[in-house]
Specification:
Elements: H1 2-10, H2 13-32, H3 42-56, H4 64-69, H5 74-99, H6 106-127, H7 134-145, H8 152-157, H9 167-187
Length: 197
């Protein structure tokens, strides 16, 4: 129990949860206001994206060198961290829908949570935990402002907003989830500033 408390504190999980809850409430208020059209996936995807970016700051600890000295199996813990974060983001959005406006089907929530958390994990591996949010942010911004897809390639590029069950969207999300989670679990977050120590 003490280990879990220390781990949650080192990964800034309370701050991430507060950010996720706040963004969910704000977006639900917009949806209840009727500002978005029916079936518009941008608001729920914005909740998922914000939750993913908030959770991504916890993909590295305060001191990576200290983390790596711990004699615990990091690979399953890192994989579980990514998977649980994705499940929690989806659960909060699904719970908000049960008491308010139905914004997105379960298939879209599950697909986007898996793909964006995989992308955040890949960002932590390539750029470090402090910049892990940049890949989900860039892909989310591109998807929102990109023109409607006209081919399989553009469908894969804008997978976040596609209806659930679209093959290009499903396979892109699964690939990002698998590659991102696997590389992060094995390699961990990138370390910076080693040469200055």
């Amino acid at each position: 129990m003490r280990w879990l408390t220390l781990y949650a504190r080192s990964r800034q999980i309370p701050v991430s949860l507060a950010t996720l809850m706040t963004s969910t409430v704000l977006v639900c208020a917009l949806a209840w206001d009727g500002s978005a059209g029916p079936g518009d996936p941008r608001l729920p995807v914005l909740v998922i994206g914000t939750g993913t970016m908030a959770a991504s700051i916890g993909l590295s600890g305060q001191d990576l060198a200290l983390d790596r000295t711990a004699a615990i199996p990091w690979i399953p813990r890192r994989a579980a961290h990514v998977l649980l974060a994705g499940v929690l983001i989806g659960a909060v959005l699904a719970a908000a829908q049960t008491i308010g406006e139905d914004m997105a089907p379960t298939g879209l929530i599950a697909r986007d949570c898996a793909g964006l958390m995989g992308l955040a994990a890949l960002g932590a591996t390539l750029l470090g935990g402090h910049y892990a949010w940049s890949l989900p942010f860039a892909w989310l911004a591109f998807s929102i402002f990109a023109p409607p897809p006209t081919s399989v390639a553009t469908e894969a590029a804008t997978w976040l907003l596609l209806p659930p069950g679209t093959p290009a969207g499903t396979w892109t999300a699964l690939s990002l989830a698998l590659v991102g989670t696997t590389t992060y679990a094995i390699a961990g977050p990138r370390r910076f500033g080693v040469r200055h120590q």
